[in-house]
């Protein structure tokens, strides 16, 4: 079991998410040149930092499970047009870098932060009724096994009329909170 993230892993994590967050705010996308090498770097770091000399180290196993968990939770959201491809690839790369346990913590922190930001934006933009209607519509469509974005373009994350948060920036905030807790938490 891995107890603490190595300083090199913490630095790489911070660099990846800060660049991804910047790109997502600035251009509303997370580039492949960042996510795909990050996945390889994450796997390599886990191999070399945790048990070099064996074919499959505990760190590498945790990294592979982190990638798998990220894909299992996020590919369905991508298929429903509720998450962008760059966000899915970024989360998979983070799973490779930090392993499944820490990835799950970041996923939960990012979800909480994203939820709070969404409520603040919803209230600031006066979209309370619209958001309630959209939520009801989403639940109805999903309960009938239909993709909500097919009949209602505003619910497609790729649409220019969708009201959305830059998830790369939200993930970056979740990672920064995680690193802050990680630094303060006793071993």
Backbone CA Rg? 18 Å
Average pLDDT reading: 91
- Measured between the Cα atoms of the first and last residue, the distance is 13 Å
Count of beta strands: 0
Strand content: under 5%
Task: Output the helix-strand order.
Answer: HHHHHH
Regarding quaternary structure, what we see is single chain
Shape: elongated
Counting helices, strands and paired strands, the structural category is mainly alpha
Unreliable stretches: none
Profile the largest sheet.
Answer: none
Question: Total domains, how many?
Answer: 2
DSSP helix fraction: over 70%
Secondary structure tally, helices: 6
3D structure, described in words:
With 187 residues, the protein is an all-alpha fold. Helix content is 72%, strand content 0%. It is built from 6 helices and no strands. Helix 3 (58-79) crosses helix 4. It is elongated. 30% of the residues are buried. The mean pLDDT is 91.
Detail the topology: elements first, then pairings.
Layout: H1 7-27, H2 32-49, H3 58-79, H4 85-124, H5 128-143, H6 167-184
Helix pairs in contact: 1-2, 1-4, 1-6, 2-3, 2-4, 3-4, 4-6
Provide a quick synopsis of the model.
With 187 residues, the protein is mostly helical. Helix content is 72%, strand content 0%.
Keywords:
187 residues, 72% helix
């Amino acid at each position: 079991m891995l107890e603490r993230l190595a300083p090199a892993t913490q630095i790489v994590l911070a660099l990846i998410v800060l660049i991804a967050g910047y790109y997502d705010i600035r251009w509303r996308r997370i580039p492949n040149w960042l996510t795909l090498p990050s996945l390889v770097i994450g796997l390599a770091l886990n191999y070399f930092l945790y048990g070099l000399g064996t074919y499959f180290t505990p760190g590498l196993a945790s990294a592979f499970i982190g990638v798998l968990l990220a894909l299992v939770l996020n590919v369905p959201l991508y298929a429903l047009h509720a998450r962008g491809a760059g966000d899915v690839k970024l989360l998979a790369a983070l799973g490779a870098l930090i392993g499944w346990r820490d990835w799950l913590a970041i996923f939960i922190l990012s979800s909480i932060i994203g939820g709070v930001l969404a409520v603040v934006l919803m209230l600031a933009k006066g979209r309370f009724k619209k958001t309630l209607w959209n939520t009801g519509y989403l639940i109805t469509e999903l309960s009938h096994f239909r993709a909500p974005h097919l009949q209602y373009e505003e619910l497609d994350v790729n649409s220019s009329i969708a009201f959305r948060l830059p998830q790369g920036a939200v993930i970056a905030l979740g990672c920064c909170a995680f690193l802050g807790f990680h630094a303060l938490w006793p071993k």
